[in-house]
Structures are given as C-alpha cells and as structure tokens.
Design a protein that fits this description.
By secondary structure, the chain is mainly beta. The chain has one domain (2-102). The chain has one helix at residues 97-102, and strands at 2-4, 7-11, 14-18, 23-25, 48-52, 55-63, 69-78, 82-86. The two termini are 28 Å apart. The relative contact order is 0.19.
C-alpha cells in the first residue's frame, strides 16, 4: 500500500547516504479531502458499515393513553472500540475510520 524511498545526498564532493522513509500511498487508495475511501481487498467504494463495541443505548419513552409507548429521545454511549468494515468483502478498514467519521454529514 505504501512505498519506502531512499536516496543519496552529495555535499562538497562527498557522497553521504541519508536514509529517510517517505510513505507514498498507492494510486486510488488516498483518503485526502475530495478522495473516496476504497477497499484495498475488493475495490468497493460505496458500501461500508461500522461496528461499535460496549455500547449503552438509553431511550426515553412516554406511555400513551391506550397503553402503547412512543420513543421521545435516544442517547448512546460507546465505551469500546469502533471499527469500519467493507460492506462487500467485510475487510477491516479501521485504518480509514477517522476519515470516514469526518465525512459523515
């Protein structure tokens, strides 16, 4: 998914080797602004799902005159990890979760 580049530098007619890792994302896998998340396993770029662990959901209800209940509000608290998965091949895409979360409108 990434390439490590090394290069040599020349100073005052002396060749000194400096090693520096530069990560270069593979084409089509970038997640910068305006770019889409793409599953590296199957190429899916449309269907995703997230799984939250250790979730507490609190729903407040009112009871109606006929005895039925109507939900008034929901509140959820996530205490565990949240993972992102491909909706096609179910690959773990949690490395893209931050980008995914930023792009939910």
């Amino acid at each position: 998914m990434a390439t490590v580049l090394y290069w040599r530098m020349t100073e005052n007619n002396k060749t000194t080797e400096k090693r520096r890792k530069v990560l270069v994302p593979s084409p089509g896998r970038l997640t910068r602004a305006g770019m889409r998340i793409v599953c590296p396993e199957c190429g899916n770029d449309q269907d995703f799902f997230e799984v939250a662990q250790e979730v507490t959901i609190t729903t407040c209800y009112i009871q109606n005159p006929d005895g039925s209940f109507t939900p008034q509000s929901d509140e959820s608290t996530i205490l565990g990890d949240i993972k992102l998965f491909c909706g096609e091949c179910y690959a773990d895409l949690s490395q893209y979760y931050q980008r995914f979360a930023e792009m939910i409108f």
